[in-house]
Amino acid sequence: MAISKGHRFPIDFAEAFPQGLVLVGEVAPDTEYQSREDRAAGRPVSTTQEALPGMRAVELDGLTAEPRVAGNGEFKYQSYLFRASGFRAASAGGRTQKSTESTSKAA
Prior knowledge:
Blueprint: E1 9-10, H1 13-16, E2 21-24, H2 36-41, E3 50-52, E4 55-61, E5 64-72, E6 75-83, E7 86-89, H3 97-106
Antiparallel strand pairs: 1-5, 2-4, 3-4, 4-7, 5-6
């Protein structure tokens, strides 16, 4: 049985991005899918400390992956579309606690 089109599965941040993730540029809220009440509340967007000018190490919360086919003509390949419900500043060293634990178990 194949995975149905549009299926999203939860994935741990450390598994999807083992080397971490850097946010480049300014952070702005995406209000396209918010209700009027949420927009009116004006919830602030969290910011993180800059690693380099304009670059912030972040970790994604509520991460899901959706398998996709990408490419043109005969040159097609498997890709993934990642979605997250939020983000936060990366933990010390840019690695999550879980990724450090799995690294020590593998050794």
